[in-house]
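User: Earlier you gave me the apo prediction for this protein. Now I'd like the version with magnesium ion bound, so I can compare the two side by side. Same sequence as before, with the ligand SMILES added.
Assistant: Got it. Here's the input I'm using:
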Amino acid sequence: MPILEITDVSAGYGSGPDILRGLSLEVEEAKSYCIIGPNGAGKSTLFKVIAGLLHPRTGNVVFRGESLARRRPDQVLATGVCFVPQDQALFPEMSVRENLIMGAYLVKDRSLVKERLARVYEMFPILSERAGQDAGKLSGGQQQMLAMGRALMIDPILLMLDEPTLGLAPQIAQQIFSQVEQLKSMGLTVVIIEQNAQRGLELADWGVVLDLGIVRFEGPSEGILEDPRIRELYLGKAASTGETR
Ligand SMILES: Nc1ncnc2c1ncn2[C@@H]1O[C@H](COP(=O)(O)OP(=O)(O)OP(=O)(O)O)[C@@H](O)[C@H]1O
Ligand SMILES: [Mg+2]
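And here is the structure of the complex with magnesium ion:
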């Protein structure tokens, strides 16, 4: 039984056209998903709909039996669904520690907040070293780690990461990928949008190709990586040789 069921969702901005056009997707607990697709396909829009930042025009989003379609972002967060947006939305003038504590604003039990803070510091030692520094002074990779750490402060069930390695040097991106691996091994359900489709699909159990507001293909990640049509269309790889164009 899936924990998240997206059924026939259409959504768009203001009075603009539908960006998602009858999109359906099921997410199973403790599995990991990588969403790929061309620029403007609606990948980030899908995350915004799940997170309650944009309400679907039709269709439904159901998480553990409850509809999220009309919920506010804080209400969605309270159900255990957490979204790390592309721009991370940190508080640059606040310290690393303050940013992390803000992540737990829904948690009233102070000892629980302390416990989770310790866990985040254990997972991202650099955040512990930089605890007192302004978030805005961190490097790009460290800011991404902070955004992920802040998401973990609510102990989410489902974590959505929108292009967490965007603009990062390969070595730093590699660190982020291994941290995502760690989250997977902790049993978290992770959905990641990744522009490095090859690496993203290697990481995930299930691949989803989004195009023009619908799910165009989905299946086990290896299958997507090996499918010559998908490679050609969405991975920028020549189907016959597997070489980058
Ligand atoms: N706030 C907004 N207001 C109006 N249109 C928007 C807004 N955000 C996105 N769009 C439009 O919605 C479409 C899909 O955008 P979206 O950000 O979901 O794509 P994406 O698949 O995440 O692309 P990318 O790979 O570039 O991040 C685009 O045409 C974009 O211009
Ligand atoms: Mg996007």
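For your comparison, keep in mind: Residues 239-245 have pLDDT under 50 and may be disordered.
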